[in-house]
Structure formats: C-alpha cells, structure tokens
C-alpha cells in the first residue's frame, strides 16, 4: 500500500525587521487554520508604536466591540498588540543568535529551532535586515552522508531558512529595494548632535511583495492561503 503524502507544512506568520530592529512587514495566516490556538486567531490592535503600513492582519477593535456587544472573555481574547508581539519575536531571535555565538564562536550561525507546536526560522541578511518565519513543526534537513531527508516534505530537503533566502533575493529585492513606489520610505533630519539621520515613516505595504511571498511559499510547498 502506498504511503500517503505528508500534509503541507503551514505558515503561521512572517516578520521582517530593519537594521534598527523596527518591524517593517508582518503577515499572519493563523486565522486560516481552525486548529490553530484560539489566541493566535483572535483579532488584535496594531499597538501604539507600530509604523503604518506594516501589516493588514490587525484590527482597531474586536468585532464584538464594534457591534456594541460584550467582548468574549478568556484565552480567545488574550492576544498581545502586534507591536508588543513583534518585540518578543525579535527578542527571542536576538537572544538565541547571541547565545549561539557565545557557545561556539563568532562564526556560529543560528538558523532555526523547533517545538512540538511550531518551527521558528531566521535569516540575518548582509544588509542587517532580520527575516523570521514561523511554521508548523519541520524536521531539519540532514546531510547526504546521514541519509538525507528532513526539511520541507516534497522539496528534496529545502530548509525554511532557504525559503527566507529566496524571499530576500527575490520578492524583497524586486518589490522593495528596487521599487521606487515602496522605496522603504524615510524622512531625513538631524539628531541632537547635529548629525544627519534617516528614520522610517512607513512599513512595506506592497501587493506585489505580498504576492511574491505567497508565490515563493507555494513553490516550496508551504501552505499560506491568500487573504
């Protein structure tokens, strides 16, 4: 009897941070999965410190409040504002990256870690941007000498960090870095010492980039339903 093909791994969320640790882009697919934790599917506010245009997966108020009803109590309503969760995600990645270097030297690279509930993968680009992908649990790819296997099923061993590299080299370069309509909007000014500085005014709000992200996921057999 032929074995059934493994279910496609599910993408829960994607986070992209600037070199200054600001959240530039966020997408969340958890609401598409009925078996995702209730807190991960609950609506939430963007938060006071979030740049505009970072994410479409936020709400100003819960649907019950907008309808004049009493909000539900309990875990389904207990979700952090997006800016607070963004700080936690970045803090986890920063701490693990530093721990790996302290244990094994400056050349050590932290790529991912897994729990029974999810895999968190990370890419620190040459431009010092940080890409973080959270999916359903994935087995790490194994070396050919160990018999191969692991990685994303059906891809010949593609890792989730490899997917992030494709996102950075493909849609990010095409729709963000080289796109004057997005252009990583900045405002120029001077700091207290009179030095010129640039600050971001908006996140990455590009349909072309979103479609490119979903296309890369589909090519690598990762499930991320279109909004």
Task: Tell me about this structure.
It is built from 5 helices and 7 strands, in the order ββαααβββαββα. It is an alpha+beta fold and 227 residues long. The chain has one domain: Beta-Lactamase, CATH 3.30.450.70. The strands form 2 sheets. It has a 5-stranded antiparallel β-sheet with strand order 2-1-5-4-3, sandwiched between helices. The chain has a two-stranded antiparallel ribbon with strand order 6-7. Residues 60-77 and 143-148 have low confidence and may be disordered.
Q: Counting H and I runs of at least 4 residues, what is the number of helices?
A: 5
Compute the number of structural domains: 1
- Structure summary, number of beta strands: 7
User: What's the average pLDDT?
Assistant: 77
Task: Write a concise keyword list for the protein shown above.
two-stranded antiparallel ribbon, five-stranded antiparallel sheet, alpha+beta, globular, golgi apparatus, 7 strands, ER-Golgi transport, Beta-Lactamase, 5 helices, single chain, 227 residues, Trafficking protein particle complex subunit
Q: Would you spell out the secondary-structure blueprint of this structure?
A:
Layout: E1 11-17, E2 23-28, H1 38-41, H2 63-66, H3 82-104, E3 112-114, E4 119-124, E5 130-135, H4 160-177, E6 186-190, E7 196-200, H5 207-219
Antiparallel strand pairs: 1-2, 1-5, 3-4, 4-5, 6-7
């Amino acid at each position: 009897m032929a074995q059934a093909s493994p279910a496609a791994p599910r993408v829960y969320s994607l986070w992209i941070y600037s070199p200054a640790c600001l959240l530039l882009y966020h997408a969340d697919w958890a609401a598409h999965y009925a078996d995702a934790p209730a807190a991960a599917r609950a609506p939430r506010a963007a938060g006071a410190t979030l740049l505009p245009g970072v994410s479409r997966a936020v709400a100003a108020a819960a649907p019950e409040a907008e309808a004049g009803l009493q909000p539900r109590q309990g875990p389904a309503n207990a979700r952090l504002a997006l800016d607070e969760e963004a700080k936690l995600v970045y803090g986890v990645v920063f701490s693990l990256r530093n721990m790996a270097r302290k244990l094994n030297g400056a050349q050590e690279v932290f790529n991912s870690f897994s729990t029974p509930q999810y895999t968190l993968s990370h890419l620190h680009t040459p431009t010092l941007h940080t890409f973080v992908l959270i999916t359903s649990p994935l087995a790490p790819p194994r070396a050919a000498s160990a018999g191969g296997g692991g990685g994303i099923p059906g891809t010949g061993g593609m890792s989730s960090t490899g997917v992030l590299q494709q996102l950075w080299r493909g849609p990010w370069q095409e729709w963000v870095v080289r796109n004057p309509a997005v252009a990583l909007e900045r405002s120029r000014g001077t700091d207290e010492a009179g030095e010129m500085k640039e600050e971001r005014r908006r996140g990455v709000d590009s349909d072309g980039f979103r479609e490119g992200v979903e296309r890369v996921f589909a090519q690598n057999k990762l499930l991320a339903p279109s909004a």
